[in-house]
């Protein structure tokens, strides 16, 4: 269905705008910056790829009887000044070619899948019953959701980013935004996430690198964060594993039930702490002092915590804290880095993981 703001225009012009199109006759519009392409395939898939810089081309699937409801008609006078192009297919899948830059896309497939190859400096709203597959998206606002499938993304960025799967998983290479929301019924897997404020929820959460002013993670089964710079709050779950990078800020781990594992970067300075767990173990290279209020990781090779630059308000060192409030869980704190893991793997004859 088209956006509410354009519904009245669509209905009023429906008789003139309807066109029966065979697969050999694609529909073409000339568009300028700021155009919006709205496509609904009620029973099929929507596929969006990049085309010319000023042209939108839409075609249906190979079914000869397929019909497209179009507004405005590409041959009408209204098409010359159109900023919103609406296409609806009742029975067929739809393929569109659109400008990569400055052309927003709204793709709906209530019974199918949605695929968008690339989008730059525009908005994206992709919704499907099945899988949603995004390539590289650098948008203003980005929203991708699936009812029964997975959401798979390449590099995704925007002022606001929302990725959601009601029944499957969400995975992405890199997610960047001012406000980011990611949630999945099963697994959330992000190689990296950078945001002012972010919330990540799933049955399991696996983050490679996370750099956020505020990051909240909720994972019923378990959360794993390979490297945290900035601030982090983990709420609930069975297990939690976090590596504190040299620029980690305030890290809170609350309500984990079974096990919490925290690794510190060797030689990266002190971390103030408040630890409440069923048991606390200090692994190799880690120690606690000052009546249990300061953690240290022995070793060298890591740079000390950086200093804030002038744009960040002076030259004060980054505030580093670890607050664990998980009274039912076992807590293990150790010193670890990629280098020590690699050397340990060589000593045992195992191969180091690729980086």
Q: Beta-strand percentage?
A: over 45%
Based on Cα principal axes, name the global outline: elongated
Radius of gyration: 25 Å
Q: Assign a percent range to the helix content.
A: under 10%
Q: Which residue ranges are poorly predicted, with pLDDT under 50 across at least 5 consecutive positions?
A: 1-23, 307-316, 341-355
Largest sheet, strands/sense/barrel: 22 strands, mixed
Report how far apart the termini are. 44 Å
List SSEs in N-to-C order: HHEEEEEEEEEEEEEEEEEEEEEEH
Indicate the structural class.
mainly beta
Beta-strand segment tally: 22
- The count of helical stretches stands at 3
Average pLDDT = 85
3D architecture notes:
This protein is mainly beta. Helices cover 7% and strands 58% of the residues. It contains 3 helices and 22 strands. The protein has helices at residues 4-12, 14-17, 338-348, and strands at 18-19, 27-30, 35-41, 46-50, 55-60, 68-71, 84-89, 94-98, 103-109, 114-120, 124-128, 132-138, 141-146, 151-165, 170-184, 187-235, 239-254, 259-264, 271-282, 286-289, 294-297, 321-335. The protein has a 22-stranded mixed beta sheet that branches. A hairpin with a 4-residue loop joins strand 20 (286-289) and strand 21. The longest helix is centred in the C-terminal third of the chain and has 11 residues, at 338-348. It starts with a helix and ends in a 7-residue tail after the last helix. The model is unreliable at 1-23, 307-316 and 341-355 (pLDDT under 50).
């Amino acid at each position: 269905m088209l956006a509410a703001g354009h519904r009245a225009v669509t209905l009023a012009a429906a008789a003139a705008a309807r066109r029966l199109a065979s697969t050999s006759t694609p529909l073409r519009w000339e568009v300028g910056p700021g155009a919006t392409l709205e496509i609904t395939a009620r029973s099929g898939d929507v596929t969006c790829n990049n085309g010319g810089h000023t042209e939108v081309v839409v075609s249906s699937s190979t079914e000869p009887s397929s019909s497209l409801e179009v507004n405005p008609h590409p041959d009408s006078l209204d098409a010359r000044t159109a900023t919103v192009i609406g296409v609806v297919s009742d029975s067929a899948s739809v393929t569109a070619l659109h400008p990569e830059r400055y052309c927003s896309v709204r793709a709906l497939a209530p019974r199918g899948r949605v695929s968008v190859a690339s989008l730059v400096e525009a908005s994206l709203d992709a919704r499907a019953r099945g899988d949603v597959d995004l390539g590289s998206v650098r948008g203003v606002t980005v929203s991708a959701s699936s009812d029964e499938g997975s959401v798979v993304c390449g590099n995704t960025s925007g002022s606001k980013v929302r990725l959601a799967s009601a029944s499957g998983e969400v995975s992405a290479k890199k997610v960047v935004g001012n406000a980011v929301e990611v949630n999945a019924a099963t697994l959330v897997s992000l190689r990296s996430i950078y945001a002012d404020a972010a919330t990540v929820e799933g049955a399991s959460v696996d983050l490679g690198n996370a750099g956020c002013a505020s990051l909240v993670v909720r994972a019923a089964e378990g959360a794993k964060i390979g490297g945290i710079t900035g601030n982090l709050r983990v709420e609930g779950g069975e297990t939690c594993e976090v590596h504190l990078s040299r620029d980690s800020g305030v890290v809170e781990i609350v309500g984990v039930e079974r096990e919490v594992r925290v690794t510190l970067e060797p030689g990266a300075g002190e971390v103030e702490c408040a630890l409440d767990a069923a048991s606390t173990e200090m692994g190799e290279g880690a120690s606690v002092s000052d009546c249990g209020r300061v953690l240290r990781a022995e070793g060298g090779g890591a740079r000390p915590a950086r200093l804030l630059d002038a744009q960040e308000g002076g030259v004060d060192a980054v505030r580093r804290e670890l607050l664990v409030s998980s009274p039912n869980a076992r807590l293990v704190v150790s010193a670890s880095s990629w280098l020590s893991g690699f050397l340990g793997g060589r000593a045992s004859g195992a191969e180091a993981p690729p980086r």
